Recover the amino acids of this structure.
């Protein structure tokens, strides 16, 4: 028996079958098994702190004060970062932060705006 696909709404992996539908217990989203076969292409796999998938060009908000290495400046909570680029590696987001400049962020410290 094949594994059900992750939830298209919240990306939860705890999806189960209910008759001819898939059901997500985390967000209560239901969708047809036929619709799951025609789903969108796979995302990059990078998610924010809440588990929401991120894509290139998204706007995110910083959820924790972050010290900037080699500088005395700090990226404050609530800072909006526009037009992110997803990358491979330890820091999976490349961006330009207003007042600081170009830097890499970890997706676990941001949420999608």
């Amino acid at each position: 028996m094949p594994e059900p696909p992750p939830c298209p709404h919240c990306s939860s992996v705890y999806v189960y079958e209910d008759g001819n539908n898939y059901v997500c217990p985390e967000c209560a989203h239901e969708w047809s098994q036929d619709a799951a076969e025609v789903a969108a292409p796979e995302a990059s796999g990078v998610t924010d702190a809440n588990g929401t998938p991120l894509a290139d060009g998204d706007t995110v908000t910083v959820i924790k004060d972050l010290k900037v290495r080699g500088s005395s400046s700090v990226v404050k909570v609530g800072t909006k970062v526009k037009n992110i680029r997803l990358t491979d590696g330890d820091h999976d987001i490349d961006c330009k932060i207003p007042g600081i400049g170009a830097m890499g962020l970890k997706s676990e410290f941001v949420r999608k705006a």
Notes: Residues 32 and 38 are 10 Å apart (CA to CA).
